[in-house]
Every structure is written in structure tokens, then in C-alpha cells.
Amino acid sequence: MREPASATKGFTHFVVTQKVRESATISSFVLRPVRDDSHLTFRPGQFIVVRIPLAGGAQVLRTYSLSGNPDDPSQLRISVKHERAPVHLPDVPAGVGSSFLHESLDVGGQLEIAGPSGEFVLDESSERPVVLFSGGVGLTPMVSMLHRLATGSARPVYFIHACEDGAVHALRQEVLALAAARPNIRVHFCYRTPNRDDLELGHHHSSGLISRENLQALLPLDDYDVYLCGPRPFMQANWRLLRGLGIDKARIRYEFFGPATILDEDEPTPAPAPTQPDAQPVADTQMSVRFDPSGRSVPWDQGCHSLLELAEQAGLSPSFSCRAGLCNTCLTPLVSGSVEYIEAPLIEPEPGQVLLCCTRPTSSVVLALGDLQ
Ligand SMILES: Cc1cc2nc3c(=O)[nH]c(=O)nc-3n(C[C@H](O)[C@H](O)[C@H](O)COP(=O)(O)OP(=O)(O)OC[C@H]3O[C@@H](n4cnc5c(N)ncnc54)[C@H](O)[C@@H]3O)c2cc1C
Ligand code: FES
User: Fold this and answer.
1) Has residue 336 been placed in a domain?
2) Domain-located, residue 105
3) 127 CA to middle of ligand 2, Å?
4) Ligand nearest to the CA of residue 325, numbered in listed order
5) Nearest-ligand number for the alpha carbon of 138
6) By residue range, what is the domain housing residue 161?
7) What Rg do the C-alpha atoms of the chain give, in angstroms?
8) What is the CATH classification number for the domain harbouring 47?
9) What are 36-47's pLDDT values in tens digits?
């Protein structure tokens, strides 16, 4: 039986069939499998991992949400922001992955991708109204969700997008066309600093930062499913606004496009589990996890999904991105002990290294994981 591309754990070659400039900073890449016999399925909100070749044969892995129509099985689309070098910081280089995609990849070029994957997906079993709330390039998974909601659902939808101005606003016409496809889809664009064209043409509905008043006016009292994605300050500010409007934590699903931190920093963080004296050996029925060089040691908590979750629960901030064994961002030296993989990693780590996001200990372990990564 032929395996659908969505089920592949390894990398598959895709060819770029279209490259579309969506705004001053964002371009879309439409991708089809080189072996044109794969059936591409993904859930709206999922991402793929892209292998980016670098000079000298090196490579990096980067994660991109799928921004296209989940009901088109023939192709995938990603929309990528070019992370240019900041003009005011001459020593900081441009982003390697997005620069390669923008500057060196054109129609006809090939990319190796893995996935689709990810748990930040539209809950289609729910009948609640949906709020798709994005900042900047965080709109990509929302556009894919909007495709599905516009054609396959009658749920009320509120598509709220914040960005700098009309010049960097991507996929605007597509969102408006989807919203016009059926009643009960409301769109609100908020530009932080609208330019002259925006002001003349009325491209946006509000300006400045999204405020509590904006949200209150937009969202009538109801029980919503909220999907939130954007840069860190956007996420923190709007998480608080949503919580302030009484929206339950469990109703707010979110995705960070980079190393994430705890969102609700205004809420008490769980106290670190009690520290154990170093030298005491621990029976493996009470497995411990020690983080070097601090020497902090916590008992393994069976309620944790992975070592990553345990480390976060202990107050550490390990780097992560995909949380699915695909991107190697959470690769950490295993000083001693053994682990099992709850999800097979895409690329098997070298001996002595573990992927925190998809492992659990099978004995007491020591990890080389500082307080700050
Ligand atoms: C689940 C998920 C989904 C995502 N979806 C999307 C998407 O749909 N679209 C999208 O555009 N992105 C998306 N991303 C982000 C994407 O994966 C990349 O992180 C992004 O493209 C930047 O990668 P890069 O290689 O260009 O930048 P990197 O090389 O990783 O650099 C990142 C930033 O750091 C700066 N930098 C580089 N070196 C230094 C240094 N020495 N000191 C200080 N700063 C430095 C760069 O200028 C750049 O701004 C997603 C991420 C995740 C985790
Ligand atoms: S966070 Fe991507 S492999 Fe662990």
C-alpha cells in the first residue's frame, strides 16, 4: 500500500511550483512532491520541517506552518517571513533559513521536507465560535484553519490579525475572499502604524495595539475556542487580554514560532520540586532527573509527557521548537542514565545525546541542561 506523504517520518523531496510575494517581508512557496503520486493530507494548523542546505554541505532544520487549503491534496503551501539583518544592529546576521528560501530558492528548485506534524490544530469536534487571532507571520496556520472553516463549517468565526502596516500584511485578499464565502465570518485587521496608503484606502479596521476595548467590541459574550499565534510580546499581551475578558485557559490554544516561554507570567509558576541531596543514590522505582551543572535534582513525574515537560515544570527553560522529535532544537547531552523514545525522532541523535521533547527516563538520568539555554 502506498504511504500518504502526511504519514512519512522521513524527509521527502518536493519541488517549488510557485513562489508568490505576499508582502514586503513574506513570500509563499507552493510545493508538490517530486514523485507525483503522494496524497498530501494535513490538519489545519500543522507544520512541516524543512531541511535547509548551507554552504560547505551543512544544513539546518526549520519549521513552517502550512498556510494553504487543507482540502487540496495536491500541494502544500508555506508562507515565510524573511528575517533580515536588523539595520540598527550591524553585527547580527540575517536568518539563515528564511534568507535561503527568499534569496536562493525559486520555482523548479527542490526542498526536502518532513511532516506534516503538530498538535496546534483546529478542533473540528467543537461547535463553539472560533477566534483566529494572529500577529505578523503568525497568521499562517490561521489562514489554513480559515480555509476549512469557510467551506466545511457554519460556526461563527472571528479572524483578528495584527501587523505593522499594509506593506507587510500578507494574504489579505485571500482572507477577505474566504470571509466572503459564507455569512458569519468577521475579519478585523489592526495596523500598529498604518502608512499613508492604508489611511487613504481604509485597509485596516483599527490602529495601534489591540486593546481590551477592541476585543470587547469585536467579541460578543460567548464561549469561544481561541487560537493564538504571533511574536512573543503579541502573545503575552493578548493572552492577558483574553484571560481578562474571562476566557478560560483551556479554551486558548497557542503556538509560538520560536523558542517559547511561559505565557502567563503574571500567574504563579509552580514551585520547583524539592531538591534532593546529590550524593544519595535513588532506587530506579523512584527515578530522579538531575540537571547539571546546577546539580538540581527532581523525581521523575509519571504525569509528565516527556523530559522536556519535567524540565519546564522544574522551572528550567530548555530550547524547543516542534515538540515532536522533528527539529532537534531540544537536543541535550545525556551525562548518565537511559531513556526511551515515546515518539521516534526524525533524526536519531548521536549516542550521549537525547531529544527532551520525545523521551522519558527508564532509569535515573543526569542531563547537561543549564538554567538558561
Ligand atoms: C511551529 C512553528 C511554525 C512556524 N511557522 C512559521 C511560518 O509559517 N512562517 C515563518 O516565517 N516562520 C515560521 N516559523 C519560524 C521558523 O521556523 C524560523 O524560526 C524562522 O524562519 C527564522 O529562521 P531563520 O533560519 O531565518 O533565522 P535564524 O538563523 O534561526 O535566526 C533567527 C533570528 O535571530 C537573528 N540572529 C541570527 N544570529 C544572531 C545572533 N548571533 N545574535 C542575535 N540574533 C541573531 C536573525 O536575524 C533572525 O532574526 C515557525 C516556527 C515554529 C516553531
Ligand atoms: S523540540 Fe523539536 S525535536 Fe524536540
Assistant:
1) yes
2) yes
3) 32
4) 2
5) 1
6) 130-255
7) 22
8) 2.40.30.10
9) 666 689 999 999
